[in-house]
Amino acid sequence: MERHTVLGLMVKLKLRGTRAAYDEVITQAGKRGHAPKRVIGELLAAQLADVESRAMAYRMGNAKFPVMKTLAEFDLAISPVNAAVVRDLH
């Protein structure tokens, strides 16, 4: 099967991680004579890493952690900390 056909199928199946790793895995397999089982395993591992990475990014986005602020942006008037000590330590 031609490369463009394989990559097209990966796009349709939404295998982003596999598609991203495909060229590198196939090149290394050709140079080192890897067995088909190993190639498939490496492609599946790349897909799993991509899925886990996207899931983590999604969860971090949903967590709505506060945005990092500089000291100038931080409102010390509503904070229970001593503003003079914070500025002195800064």
Map the helices and strands.
Layout: H1 3-12, H2 16-32, H3 36-63, H4 83-89
Helix pairs in contact: 2-3
Q: Can you characterise this structure?
A:
The protein is mainly alpha-helical and 90 residues long. The protein has one domain. Helix content is 69%, strand content 0%. It has helices at residues 3-12, 16-32, 36-63, 83-89. The mean pLDDT is 91.
- The tally of structural domains comes to 1
User: What portion of residues belong to β-strands?
Assistant: under 5%
Count of helical regions: 4
Unreliably modeled segments: none
Number of beta-strand segments = 0
**Termini distance?**
62 Å
Oligomeric state of the chains?
A: single chain
Order of helices and strands: HHHH
Q: What is the CA-based Rg, rounded?
A: 24 Å
Quote the average pLDDT: 91
Helix coverage percent of residues? 55-70%
- Label the overall shape: elongated
Q: Describe the sheet with the most strands.
A: none
Query: What is the structural class?
Result: mainly alpha
In short:
The protein has helices at residues 3-12, 16-32, 36-63, 83-89. With 90 residues, it is mostly helical.
Key descriptive features of the protein:
4 helices, 90 residues, elongated, mainly alpha
